[in-house]
From TrEMBL:
Keywords, in A-Z order: Cytoplasm, Nucleus, Protein transport, Transport
Name of the protein described by the UniProt record: Exportin-7
GO molecular function, one term: nuclear export signal receptor activity
Family membership noted in the UniProt record: Belongs to the exportin family.
Species of the source: Nicotiana attenuata
Length: 90
């Protein structure tokens, strides 16, 4: 999960859609791991950016349910694209 987030956030990744499917599955399987990873990523960012980036993480999971149905996966994919764009805006 960490590697996928690093690719999405810090590398030029043209196709987040292909990464979003396994990312959602891993987040749903281990919400604790996702919470820990979120905290780790936030703490590695400048202090003045952490609150804004925390909101990005909140938006990533906005309206996401604990299911892998098509509508939920599509919503997560859209949220992931928005998350990446907002996270990378400084």
């Amino acid at each position: 999960m960490k590697t996928l987030f690093e690719i999405v956030l810090f590398e030029d990744c043209g196709n987040q859609w292909s990464l979003s499917r396994p990312m959602l599955s891993m987040i749903l399987i281990s919400e604790e791991m996702f919470s820990n990873l979120r905290a780790q990523i936030l703490s590695s960012q400048p202090t003045d950016q952490q609150q804004r980036l925390s909101l990005c993480f909140d938006k990533l999971m906005a309206d996401i349910t604990r299911s892998l149905d098509q509508k939920n996966r599509d919503k997560f994919s859209n949220n992931l694209t928005r998350f990446r764009n907002e996270f990378r805006t400084r």
